[in-house]
Design a protein that fits this description.
3 strands; 22% strand; 83 residues; 3-stranded mixed sheet; alpha+beta
């Protein structure tokens, strides 16, 4: 599984900025796994009193032509930060 920060340029980051995460799984995702991931990120929100946005996809889904066409995906690939 890969966890990376979705694009927030250094110039755009502010004290009140939220955290954006893209989680890409190497295997198909079922509802139970997605729920556990969301719950873990929700705990981070509560502990830090900040908004955490998340997108959770399988690698196959993320690599599909539908996502290739999105400006969002291009921004992630250009500006995202891998762990």
């Amino acid at each position: 599984m890969i966890l990376c920060t979705v694009p927030v340029s250094a110039n755009a980051a502010r004290q009140d900025s939220d955290r954006d995460f893209l989680i890409i799984a190497d295997h198909p995702l079922d509802r139970e796994i997605i729920t556990k991931l969301k719950d873990g990120l929700y705990d981070i929100e509560l502990e830090n009193d900040e908004v955490v946005s998340r997108i959770i996809r399988s690698r196959q889904g993320w690599s599909s032509p539908e996502y290739d066409a999105l400006l969002f995906k291009k921004a992630v690939e250009r500006e995202g930060i891998e762990p």
